[in-house]
Amino acid sequence: MSQLGKLVRDYLTAQAGYSSIFPGGINPDSNPVDYPLPFATFQGISKIRDRELAGSAVVTTERIQLTIVAMTRAAAQTCAGWVAAKLSLNPALQTIGTTKVYYLRVEDESAQAELLGDGSDEAARVVEVDIQGAYLEA
Q: The whole model's pTM is what?
């Protein structure tokens, strides 16, 4: 599971309005079954560890994809806008839990037409948000 994904989830779940924006929550790796919409999942895309000459990790830069699933494109885009707004509140140095985070930012956003794989005949709309961040590994 992505460390940055866990940090972003921990940060967002602590924000005002989280439970009304994501009644289905933010989950790692795969879409949950029978969760209320909208919900989101996160997957690690890439990770780069910068090291000192002695070999200890100095900073890790990671990219994740947050996949937002909702019944309408407008609802999915509202969720994506909420995520971007919350991440821009504290874009620089902060501590989330016990991890020092240097930055979090939305890099890209894209939409898919629909998703029909949840066992129902209702199409769901998907917006994918790429998030990059850097943090100090413990």
A: 0.86
